[in-house]
Amino acid sequence: MAYDVAALRRDFPILQHKVHGKPLVYLDNAATTQKPKVVLDVMRRYYEEENSNVHRGVHLLSETATKSYEGARETVRKFVNARSVQEVVFTRGTTEAINLVAASFGRPRLQKGDEILVSAMEHHSNIVPWQLACEATGATLKVVPITDAGELDMAAFAKLLTPRTKVFAVTHVSNALGTINPVKELVAQAHAKGIPVLVDGAQAVPHTKVDVQALGADFYAFSGHKLYGPTGIGALVAKREHLEAMPPYQGGGDMIRSVTFEGSTWNELPYKFEAGTPAIAEAIGLAAAIRYVEGVGLDAIAKHEHTLLEQATSTVTTIPGVRVVGTARHKAGVLSFTVDGVHPHDIGSLLDRDGVAVRTGHHCAQPVMDRYGLPATTRASFGLYNTAAEVDVFAASLAKVVAMFREA
Fold it and tell me: Is the pTM of the predicted complex or chain greater than 0.90?
C-alpha cells in the first residue's frame, strides 16, 4: 500500500494551522512530535468517562481506569518486545528513566576508582545523571569519542571497556547528529566483559522497530512525546533481575506493600518504582500513539523519513555556505547544519516568518557542539507527516535567508 502522507496529515489537527499567515511547516520533531486526534480523543475520553485513581479503588470507575492504565503497559511491552509487563516501568520520560537507573542501579554499585562510560554524542539527560552518580560515589566518567562524521570511534570504545567500567550508557540515535548507533554490537561487546548497558531510545522508537530482547540492553528508556504521544510519560524497560535488586527511587503511595513507623516493605514490580498517582491519561494516550504508529508501519515511516532526509540534504547543501554537521553512514531523519557567517538563532527566527519551525541551539548536547567547535546548529528533523513539498518550502526559505545575509 502506498504511503498516503496527505491522509496522515488530516489526523493531526495542529498541522492545519498557519504561522504568521503561512502554512505551518513543522520540522522540529526531534524536540517533540505533534499528536494525532486519536491520542487527544482517548485522553479526553478518560477524563470525561473514566476519571479515577488506579489500583486502589473497588468501584467501577477505578476498575475501568486501572484496566486502561495496565492495558497501556501491555501495549508498551509488546511495542518493544519486553519479556514481561513487570519489566515496564512508567516514568515521566527518558530523563527520569535514566535518573532512576543512575540513582538506584548506579550509585549502590559504584565506588572510588570505578568508571561509567558514555559516548561523546549523548544528550545531557544521559550525561548529567551519571555525573551526579560520580560525584556521590567517587567514580569517574569516561567518554567514547566520535569521528568527524559523527560516528562512534569503535576502536576507542573497545579500549575503554575495562574491569573498572561498571555501566555503559549510550544513545540509540543522536538527537543532534541523527547518527544511528550499532547498539546490538555495542551491547554484545560490553556484555562480553560483564558490563551492563543503558540505551537512550528517545530518538529511536519513533523511527525504527525496537526489540529490547534482540538488542540485549539491560535498560532501555524512551519518551512518549517524541512518539506522537503526550508529554509527561515515558518508560524504562529493564531486565527483571536488575529491577528486583534495585532499591526504590522514590517513596510514597503505590510503591509500598506495608508501612509502619518502624519500617516499610515494597510493592512488587513494576510498582516499586512508581510512587504516587501515575500519569494515567498520559499512559493511555501513549498507548494510543503506539497503536497509531504501528498502524502506519514503522518500516514505512522510516523509509518515508529517509527519503525526506536525502531530499533535504541534497537541496540545502547546494546553498552557498551551508555545512551539514553529522554525516554518519546510518542516520535517522535529522539534518543539523551551519551557515557561514550567520548565527543559527537568526536562521531559525527568519525561517519562522515563513512558517517553518526548526530547532536552533546546542540541542541539549553541548559536548557535541564543543566537538565540532560550534556554539550551535540549526536542526530540521522529520516526522511521519512531513512532505516533499514542505522540504522544498524549507529549502527555499533557507536560501532566501542566506541570500539576505550575503547582500547585507
Answer: yes
